[in-house]
Write a structure and sequence with these properties.
0% strand, mainly alpha, 252 residues, extended, 7 helices
Length: 252
Amino acid sequence: MNGPTAEGRKRGAAKRAGNGPAAEGRKLSRSFGWLAFLGTLLVIAGVVGLIYTGVATLTSMLLFGWLLLIGGLVALAHAIESRGTNYFWLGVVVAALNLAAGVVVIRHPEGTAEALTMFAALLFLTGGVFRLVGSVVVRGPQMGWTLLQGAFGLLLGLLVLFDWPHSSLYVLGVFFSLALLFDGLGLIAIGIGGRRIVSMVSDRLDDRLDDRGGDRLGGRESGHGAGRGAERLDAPGPATDSPPKAPGDGRK
């Protein structure tokens, strides 16, 4: 009885100390929970951006400008660290361009939105034309889908271009909000699925550990029982006071 009790105490102490699979599963579940929470925030931001597209456009432009500034500062620091090499002046030029572009975007977000909207419209137009022409020339197995994508890109580019510059107030904001919405949905799916998988794996590991502990306890009990049986077999019989009889004593 001392062996099983000691082993059970050790296993319980390990679980309370946080060294078992259940503790690791709780940590992973907490991490996946934070991912799901972040995804929920992104989904909320995406929905708000779709409602207020003008605010989303200005916000995306300001974020883009600050990213350019931070990238320029990092590139400048890297260029200073690599002074004396052949890439020093190239790093300085790249850093200066990033810094200048960041300042322009932050100071003139509306003009930057108009320029980027025009660029997006031209990109949609050229992409749609190339897909339409390529699908007609190649005539592959996915010709129908390629024609549909090309027609959609061409139509979207024309709609944005015909409503320019007024379209710059909502096009980039819609794209930015949709990106936030789909990224948030992806993080929520990863968080919920990850928590389910971790809970299933941790439960199976706990069951396996319990089964192994039960097998060990059963083995020990059977060993003790076998020892007791051997002791019974090896134990001498009860002693008698009368001496053993000779073979011919009982004959007449």
